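Duplicate of #3305? Posting structure anyway:
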């Protein structure tokens, strides 16, 4: 007798697999684009000081006999400044690359925040005085030692307090360390400087981002400092946040678990000002 056979096949799984494959492809493409963009930014950043070094050196060599001591010294100073910038840039790039590749190991030990913060402030007193800024430090009494990597934490604070000095002229910088929850401490670095526009805040922690990025840029730097700080805070199980108001100042806050890196990594978040 004649009959029909119906074959029903559930293709949901196939569809899900195809979709997952498509998403993986898109993620790989995005990662590859991000890598190319990073490499092209990096080459641009490296080329700028190197061009200055070569340009001034060649010019000096051709014109050496016509130079007096003053103009000679000022061109040599420019070469030294560009060389130093290049070295900082290379160190920052290496640091950032290691962090991105998860190749940075932290060495936690009990850190007395008062000692560490005062050391950082002492190191930056000269920079603060140059800009006629004052730095005040308050550390909550009886704060327990924090299990963190002192070298990396110092690097983060040097960058934040250094930025506060750089972007504040004749103002006040405050470093306040306190217990924000039973499990966390917070270090707020506040300044009364130029501030940052709300639409720029979300980009600050991306590599090579500098808010004032035009050819007449007044402030030196590599644009990698905050990207490095954010990743360092992450590997120490913490987070970094920023609030700011243009013309009034900024506060960068570092949050760290008192007992060191928790088993699940903390999310890094940002807040608008
Ligand atoms: P840079 O080496 O250029 O300072 P960072 O990553 O440390 O790089 O900072 C990125 C940018 O964020 C800076 O170029 C500046 O535009 C902005 N920024 C950082 N800190 C401050 C601050 N305290 N006040 C105002 N702007 C800041």
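Output from current build:
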């Amino acid at each position: 007798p004649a009959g029909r056979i119906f074959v029903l096949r559930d293709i949901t799984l196939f569809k899900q697999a195809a979709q997952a494959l498509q998403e993986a492809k898109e993620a790989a493409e995005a990662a590859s684009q991000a890598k190319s963009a990073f490499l092209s930014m990096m080459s641009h950043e490296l080329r700028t000081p190197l061009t200055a070094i070569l340009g001034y050196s060649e010019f000096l060599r051709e014109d050496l006999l016509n130079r007096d001591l003053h103009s000679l010294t000022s061109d040599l100073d420019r070469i030294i400044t560009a060389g130093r910038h290049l070295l900082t840039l290379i160190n920052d790039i290496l640091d950032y690359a290691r962090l991105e590749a998860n190749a940075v190991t932290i060495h936690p030990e009990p850190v007395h925040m008062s000692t560490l913060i005062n050391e950082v402030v002492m190191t930056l007193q000269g920079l603060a005085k140059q800009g006629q800024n004052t730095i005040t430090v308050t550390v909550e009494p009886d704060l327990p030692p924090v299990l963190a990597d002192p070298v990396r934490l110092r690097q983060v604070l040097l960058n934040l307090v250094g930025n506060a000095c750089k972007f504040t002229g004749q103002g006040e910088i405050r470093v306040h360390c306190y217990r924000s929850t039973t499990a966390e401490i917070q270090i707020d670095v506040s300044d009364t400087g130029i501030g940052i526009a709300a639409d720029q805040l979300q980009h600050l922690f991306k590599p090579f981002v500098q808010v004032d990025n035009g050819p007449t840029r007044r402030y030196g730097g590599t644009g990698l400092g905050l990207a490095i700080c954010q990743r360092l805070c992450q590997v120490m199980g913490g987070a970094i946040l920023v609030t700011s108001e243009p013309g009034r100042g900024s506060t960068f806050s570092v949050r760290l678990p008192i007992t060191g890196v928790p088993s699940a990594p903390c999310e890094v978040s940002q807040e608008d000002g």
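Confirmed duplicate; merging threads. Strands lie at 109-111, 134-139, 146-148, 172-179, 184-191, 239-245, 249-257. The first helix runs from residue 12 to 63.
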